[in-house]
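Wed. Picked up where I left off yesterday with O-acetylhomoserine aminocarboxypropyltransferase. The coffee machine is broken again, so keeping this brief.
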Amino acid sequence: MSETSPYDDKPGEGFATTMLHHGHKLDIENRARAVPLFQTTSFEFKSAEHGASLFGLAELGPIYTRLMNPTTHVLEYKMAKLEGAPCPAHGDCDNSATLPSALAVASGMSAQMHALMTFMQAGDNFVTASEVYGGSFTQFSYSFKQIGIEARFANVSDLDQVKSLIDANTKAIYIETLANPSGTIPDFEAIKAIAVEAKIPIVCDNTFGMGGYACRPLAWGADIIVESATKWIGGHGTSIGGIIVDGSSFNWLTENEDGSLKFPLVGGPQESYHGGVFAKHPIFGVEATNTVFILLARVKTLRDMGGCISPFNAWQLIQGIETLSLRAKAHSENANALALWLSTHPKVKEGSVLHPSLPSHPSHANAIKYFRPGCFGSVFTFELVGADAEDEKARGASFITNLNMCAHLANVGDARTLIIQPSLTTHQQLNAEQQAAAGIKPASIRVSVGYEDIEDIKADFEQAFAAFDAKSE
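Structure written out below (tokens, as returned):
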């Protein structure tokens, strides 16, 4: 790897070391080695003056678990570091002195809603990739529309189309690291050039980047990360959560041509804090970083919208993080092997396996450029051979029904192999034209490859193929 690779970790700050150690200071009084679970709604004040100081943001400390909780802060410190965001040194991860440059929330959907609502308001718009998770498509198309924010969908591989949708009211470009489920990987550096010219941030859903293991978009030009911690970060299908990470790279005091603030919700006076301008006054010992976005996401957006994570879920996600690199590597190796095997299988439609590890995939070159070597994501789609489109769709449904080990459910990033037909489930609420724009074909089968023994995954697929053939005879 080159010296400039974002996957070359500094001595003492390796990915696995960060997973296990960063963000948790030993409990000096009781010396508990594991991260304690603070399952409480609120925290007592030391005095009347202390309570007033906390509420006035003159002092940092937990008040109410919706906003701050010591267990949740450990998750936030870890995720900020794993994603490559500016962070305090391990010994300085003290929530009485600094805030993490990440924010944990209730879910991945909550993460993107809270992130965008921190700096966007009625009359604004943003350009988003058309190939996105089905829930993101509906949230952007309908829920944001209700509050006067327009989502403009674009093929992010068509840079001219992206540029053409940007105007004076455009406030962000939204992309997915690896599109769900088509596997399209954007040219981060080309998108960054467009964003810089337009003076807007890039918000990137890095769920499929496996918590920074497979891909670190902040290193390639993204400004804000959102992700579902439910998936590879937790890794076992037990807890729902979301993460927002601030790359501290965007200038929120950017001005329009007339000299007015382009992002007044972040750079301007905060009405709910007596007109204070947070962007001009570093607080909580973060003078060297530009953390005003993540601060306001916490003390304003999360305060008002309330999509908080429970301490118990945060604690469970921390358990998942401690094995993240081991699991991500195993997921990746199995996905590469399964995609290659299916690409030449006689039951699989030729050219239908869409996994970036295959040289035939349109995003193979971007995967080589932007992802950790050997990692191409562990979710992909394929189609079965059939007499026509309807037959292919029916065969896909029958194949899924006949699987024994692989689970048919709506999730990805679980330890186990999961499978689903997106056109009938995750993207069902999109019409045919919208599904096509999102990279969904009627017969597409999406597989999230687990880390069972690869030969056992293949065997389950083979018996499902055979069971379908037996019923057809």
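Quick read: The mean pLDDT is 92.
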